[in-house]
Amino acid sequence: MRRPTGGTLIFLSLIGAALAAPNDRAVDSFTRDEQSAENRKLPTGQQKGDLPQEIDESRFGEKPEDVAFTAFQIGRFLTAVRLATPLAENGNPAAQTLLGEIYAAGLGVPKDPKKAANWYARAAESGVPAAQFQYALMLLDGRYVEKDEAFADRLLKQAAEGGNADAQFNYAQRLLHHGGVNEQAEAAKWYEAAAQKGVPDAQYAYANYLAGEIDGVTRNMEEARQWMSKAADGGMNAAKVELATWLFSAKGGDRDFERGFRLLQQAARTGNVAAQSQLAKAYIYGYGTEADTVEAASWYITARRAGLQDRELDDLMDGLSNDQKQQALERANRR
User: Fold this and answer.
1) Where is this region: Disordered (predicted)?
2) What's the pTM value of the predicted model, to 2 decimals?
3) Surface-to-core class of residue 301, CB atoms within 10 Å of its CB (0-12 exposed, 13-18 middle, 19+ buried)
4) Nearest CA to 226 among 249, 201, 212, 206?
C-alpha cells in the first residue's frame, strides 16, 4: 500500500515545521519536491489595520452583532474588540471566534496567541467549526496551551464533520499520521470532502489516492486526473509537476504534450526545483516544444544550484560542447 503524497500538514500556524511530511513518490524519471500548504494557515502576517483578504461570515458560526462585525469588516479592529468583548464574555460564540481571529492575527492589537487560544477554546465548546479547527492547531502545537493530541484530533473531527474544509484536510492528514488500513480509507473520505470545497492540497492528495492502490479506495485514473487538474489550476506546483507527467504519458486521459510543457514552465518559473529538472527533460525530448539541449542544460543548471542532482541530466551536460555549456550557463544566469 502507498500513502498519497501531497501538501504537508498545515499545523504550521504557530510553529515552523509540520508534524510530518509525506514521502515523495517517483513518477517515471521525474522527481517531485515537497510542497507546503500555503493559504490554509492561522493568519500570521497581517499588519495592524490591514483587512483580511476574504471575510467569510460562516466561519464565526453565527454572525456576531452587526456593529462588531461591521467594524471588523471595515478594518476598525479596536472598535470590533470593544464591541465584541462583552458579548464574548457573556457566552456569544460568534463574538468569541471573532476575538480569537483578531488576537491570533494581531489585527489592530498586539498579537496575543494565548488570548486567541482562550477565545477559540470557548467558541469551540459551543461547536463553531472554525474555532474548533484553530484551537486544535494550538493543542497540537503546545506552545500557548498544553499540548493534547488526542483532544486536538477530536476537535478536528468535529470541525470536519461541521464542514470546515481546512479541518477536513488536516483530519485526513492526522489519520494518515496514525496509520493503518482503516485510517487510509477514512482519510480518503475527508480528502474528498475538502477537495470538493476547493482545497488544492486535498485535491492533490485525493487524486493520488485514486491513482494508487489503497485498500478501501477504488482506483480511477480518469477521476484522479480531473482532481489533479483542479489542484494544478489552484496553483499547486506539485500538482502541476505530477499532472505534466500524466499528460506526457497519457495517464488517465489523452496525451497532451503542450499543456504538460506549459505546466512545467509555470512551476519552474516560480523556483520549483522538481519542475525545473522536468522542464529540462521536456526540452531534451521535445515534449510540447522543440528539442533544445542548451535550454535543457540551462534549466538543469538552475535546478542544480538548488541542490538537485539527476544522472540523466548529468549525462546531458557531459555530452555538450564547451560552447554549449557556456550558452547554457549564460541563460541560467539571466533568470
Assistant:
1) 32-55
2) 0.79
3) buried
4) 206
